[in-house]
Write a structure and sequence with these properties.
The structure is a single chain. 78% of the residues lie in helices and 0% in strands. Helix 5 runs antiparallel to helix 9 and helix 10 (243-272) runs parallel beside helix 16. With 429 residues, it is mostly helical.
Length: 429
């Protein structure tokens, strides 16, 4: 066998003079995706409205009614959104996005307007709760759709690239960027909503939310990267027919339950140990750590995307184990002082955004062909379910057993999520 034949038999090799990958190469590669800046703008515009609407609704209803009623309205909004998210995702996957999104937008704006009129007019509580649920049920799923759009955009970029791993790297960076945008919106959205509600008018935040939602829908339906459509018929369970995906969804719900537990218990801990002034700082630096972790993952996507796609399951579990270790350290610091907890909050939050991004990336790998939006919608619904369960359970434990005991249980939930999510492997080629 001559030298050229032996080279062909050995398969493709990396060029000897290949340039080493730089720290920000992930973002440079992602920026090469056609329409990147437009997609990034749609992503950010889609993240702010969900982060603003809950607090805006609480302050609007709470002005003319009791805060108990306002809390029920916010719960109705979340229930309406969580229960119907998979259905809206299935509609997007099976039909053209334009009529579905425009129909959702028209219903959402109508429900919002009627809700404002009923609240300001002193209408019945039942009508307020029903309209709040309707708002959640028909909210345009732009933020969820962006994940499937990023999948399609990076897949298309990979097909035109000579590097077989470029698509996986770009997708990991895109999911990390999406997660960091969501983290940033969760910090800025409530601040903007509260300032507009208290300084200008309780109605103004809804005007901003409506404008941002309409802009995001308008930009997305004219995007060059619409999500792919599935066949009209298939298994009635949709993505839930996949056992690995069901395990991923369970791991996602438990992870969100643990994260919500930290968010709920830290303010209770601050009050118990006479450090109420640290409440906002705890949650703020935890979120900042999460955003920074997501951005770091996007800068080095190959940390979680090298190798075949079926290796991502264990990497999700490894991130969950790191999160468990961080929250365990946080629980230990709670026995030292509130200042020690504040110092460890950024470290505990560092892998939150990374884990969210990797769960979404793995969910896209496991999604049936043409059902990425519905799969991401199921992840969103499980986020809400896990968050609601985590808030109720950990608040109850903290009230009965103390905040330190509740913090000690958070790593156990994260480790359970790691065990369940370990074998979430895909058979896709």
């Amino acid at each position: 066998m001559d030298r050229s034949s032996s080279i062909r038999a050995a398969g493709p090799t990396e060029p000897a003079d290949a340039a080493p990958r730089r720290f920000l190469s992930g973002y440079r590669d992602l920026m090469d995706v056609p329409g990147f800046w437009r997609l990034a703008a749609i992503g950010m515009a889609s993240k702010l409205p969900p982060s603003m609407v809950g607090l805006s609704l609480l302050l609007l209803v709470g002005r003319d009614h009791s805060y108990g009623t306002a809390g029920l309205a916010v719960s109705g909004l979340a229930v309406g959104q969580g229960v119907t998210a998979p259905l809206r995702g299935r509609l997007i996957d099976r039909h053209a996005p334009r009529p579905v999104l425009l129909g959702c937008l028209a219903a959402y704006l109508t429900a919002t307007l009627v809700l404002i009129l009923v609240v300001r007019g002193g209408g019945p509580v039942a009508a307020i709760l029903a309209l709040a649920a309707a708002m959640g049920a028909c909210a345009p799923p732009v933020a969820v759709m962006m994940r499937s759009v990023w999948h399609r955009a990076t897949d298309g970029s990979a097909k035109s690239s000579t590097d077989n791993s470029s698509g996986a790297g770009k997708l990991a960076t895109a999911m990390a960027l999406d997660s960091s945008m969501m983290g940033a919106a969760l910090i800025t959205g409530p601040v903007l909503a509260s300032w507009l509600s208290l300084s200008v008018s309780p109605v103004v935040p809804f005007v901003v939310v409506a404008l941002l939602t309409a802009v995001a829908v308008g930009m997305l339906i004219n995007s060059p990267q619409p999500p792919s459509r599935s066949a009209r018929y298939g298994h009635w369970l949709g993505p839930l027919a996949s056992a690995p995906l069901r395990r991923l969804l369970a791991a996602d719900a438990l992870f969100v339950m643990a994260v919500t537990g930290v968010d709920v218990v830290l303010p209770i801990y601050a009050r118990e140990y006479h450090a109420a002034g640290f409440t906002g700082l705890y949650l703020g630096v935890l979120s900042v750590g999460s955003v920074l972790g997501s951005l770091a993952l996007g800068a080095l996507p190959r940390l979680l995307s090298d190798g075949p796609k079926n290796s991502r399951g264990p990497k999700v579990s490894l991130l969950l184990c790191v999160f468990a270790a961080g929250t365990g350290a946080l629980a230990s610091a709670a026995g030292v002082s509130p200042h020690a907890v504040l110092l460890l909050c950024p470290l505990a939050g560092l892998v939150i955004g990374c884990t969210f991004a990797t769960l979404r990336t793995t969910g896209g790998d496991l999604a049936p062909d043409g059902r990425v939006t519905e799969t991401m919608s199921w992840l969103s619904s499980l986020d809400m379910a896990g968050g609601a369960l985590g808030a109720a359970a950990f608040a109850h434990i903290a009230a009965d057993e103390g905040s330190r005991t509740a913090l000690l249980l958070v790593p156990a939930v994260a480790l359970l999520a790691a065990v369940i999510g370990w074998n979430t492997r895909t058979r896709k080629p």
